[in-house]
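Entry 14: structure prediction run for Aminopeptidase. Input pasted below.
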Amino acid sequence: MSQGVYISKRVAVVTVTVTALALLSVIAMVIYHRVRTEECPPSLLPTVVTPASVPTKPLANIWLPGNLVPESYRIYLQTPLHTRDIGVHNQNLNFSGNSTVKFLCVEATDRIVIHSRDLSVTVKGVRDGHGRAVPVKGFQQQNDTDTIQIELSDTLRVGRMYYLTTEFEGVYHNSSGMFMRGYKENGTEERYVVASHMEPTDARRVFPCFDEPAMKAVFTVTIIHRKGTIALSNMAQKDQVEKEIDGEAWLITEFYPTVKMSTYLIAFVVSNFEYKETNYGRYTLKTWARPEAIAGGFVNYAHSIAGDIIDFFEDYCGIEYPLNKIDQIAVPKLKVGGMENWGLIVYEEETFLYDARLSTTLHKELLASVVAHELAHQWFGNLVTMSWWNEVWLKEGFSTFLSYLALDKVEPTWNTKDLIVVHEIQGMLHLDSEDVFHPLSLGEEDIQSVSDITDLYGSIVYNKGAAVLRMLADLLSMSVFEKGVQSYLKAFQYKTAYSEDLWIHFQKAVNDSGGHIAVAEIMTTWTDQSGYPVVTINTKSGEVSQKHFLLHQESEYNLTWQVPIKLMKSGSGDIKFDLLTVLGPVSKPLYRADANEWILANINQTGYYRVNYDPENWEKLLQQLETDYRKIPVITRGQLIDDAFSLARAKHVNITLALRTTKYLLNDTEYIPWSSALTNLQYVVSMFDRSEVYGPVKAYLRKLIGPLYDHFESVTMNSTIPDSHSAQYTHNYAVKFACASDLPKCRKMAISLFDRWRKDPTTNPIHTNLKLTVYCSAIAAGGEEEWDFAWEMFQKARVMLEKHWLRLALACTKDVWILNRYLEYSLDTDKISSEDCVSTINAVAKNVVGQPLAWNFVRSRWSDISQKSQETISQDELIEGVTERFSTTFELEQLWMFHEEHLNDLSVSGKRALTDALERTQKNIKWVTENKRTVLEWFRREVSQESNS
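Run finished. Output tokens:
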């Protein structure tokens, strides 16, 4: 599953306006299927005893007892929703069905415990393998464990097969289980699509099941849907018949049995979509979307790269894709970038659709990375699954890391294997230094609730998982790593595995290659412990040591990692290797430098840690950057900047050292070091853009970014872009920060292009890559006329990406009254969709003028905000967005007041976000207090030196 990994890089795509519908009140009605499983005919089922007759026996935890193991399911599912608009009161927002699960008894029991949540369930009966009924005394729903407990009159015997048949009815949810999405076809006609999202624990919201990843089984699915619609599931269609039910024409579509797999991978879609198809011989690829998206060619890129990506993974994993078909489908307003259901991958439409004329470089790469990520899951997660959710990184970390290798093969000019450093790893290093994150591998006992499982889906399992695997691949060599992967997958295909199993197979690959690396001994220090170390090298004494790195060292953790260190010295291209296994300090000649020699460690940032040096070595590295920066590898230049700023925030070095690492950028045009620098400088800006410090800061930024803007000025003025993929990123940065720091020629360019568009709205002269920056700059420099024009274009825009840019840019105005009006618009669903409410308010908060307005608006309108559905308003994102800049005692006091007034109005995630905001504000206050004078003096000195020269 892709989350925002993708969340932070999320962009919109070309489509017609998508109208999201809130779920309306559901009219309870039961639709019984006319079709029944042959294995369990109704005549064999006993009368069901009332559920209330079973006493409550709550389970000790959320695990199923494990005494029953499913082998197969036969599922019938009826979805009566019309995909065309027939009037909301004529729509039936329920689904219903029946299921028979065949299971093996491995421990004698007189009780069946099976998962079910938000379903109205009738237990129709239990029978043994010979068709004999097992009397049911009663059953009861256990809400605290999402289970139904069925009490039997007889004891099930070890080693025998049994069948449980249930009928059920449920409702469509907003984003999980079975859900519906509304959209407009051709911009006007209301349409609906029904889809499913089961990960991690929502299969139980669709049918009663043994909903744990290790409980793999074979699923035979039949979907009953309205005539004129198309049904899809994991496997290819086996049969379809038309049948009249209750006087209406229905289609009954049966699919072939699945391979053995986990419940979270089951998928269903009912729509009137169309598809693009390619037959690859062993399997057929179909890519589905709304008819106009297919006709417009908006799925062509995603469709074209999928086959090549599958080829890569088949070769890399040594195992062919095991199914005979794979469907990709774009669904509007999915909550994640994609979901890897075996054979039926569901993607978020805005991410998935691509128009070469209008989509950005970032969007194209995001789309490709999401497709690669979900296809990687067909092996990592689908074929081999983690035994329990505590090790979900085994699938998410692998899919994140290997998606970059796949893209490097499919799009070799992008150089994505290096971009992983700034897109995944550097941000993760910052987050993982906050002392709030769990280790990659938790103990099974650490997962005590469903919310504990969903909370795991974050940066740790995706980004840190990828970073640690990248470090291991570099340590072992890519060829040995690949052999270990193949051995692991072949040994556990269609099964589940633990981290220990992975290390065993990597160790086998190491041994077979004649190596002597103790894989498990090294890697468990990275997977079983939180955080990461800072390695400190004294190049005068040759001493090296490690310590748990935290931005705010409030307590000591005596943690030790086995740290692989790649090291180089000036004047030599040779890279040396050392494994630091103790806290130290220990003295080694390898770390000692001569008087005119510098040492550089963690080359290309392959290790997941930071590096600090003695002041003399830092000085030599800074001099090298300013005299000939090319002597230092490009990734390592970015790493030096990122490490220096984090070390400064943790008080390991002075803030002026970190700021000095950016000075050499006057000459560098590479994306990675610029990304590292501007990301870190953005924190400085956000802390001081409301104080006297900001004037010198902005002047320094203009000085720094000016040469980079000049480097790209010709392509900017000609509304073109550089040929190089990474240069396109750098170009975007150059224009964005030049305009943000009020570089006159950038502001003039933006105003000129925007005015040309205003004079001829039918022809937009602004290149797609720069639209958001140009719109924002022009609106910020303009007034009511510019804002009203952009608002008109926003309302008229049929392309989602264009609407996205304009909506964010409208928050850039400096007019307070317009910003206040725009905030009011954010709660008006006739003007701003519910899904875009939070991001619109947060966009205003990012504007230094709008930040206090957004905060006051949230406080004054909290009752309206909190009354909105929790499925459309994300309280945690809202609270984080409007408080991100807080760095004064007054703002801290306001936060405490808000905490006291609204604690009971907050969701669980909202409470957590508010706690985080309080802690972050206190840390920001402390940092500003300690660094304000030093920062002000440094920037004044740098700016005055330019003036004097």
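Notes: The mean pLDDT is 90. Will compare against the previous run tomorrow.
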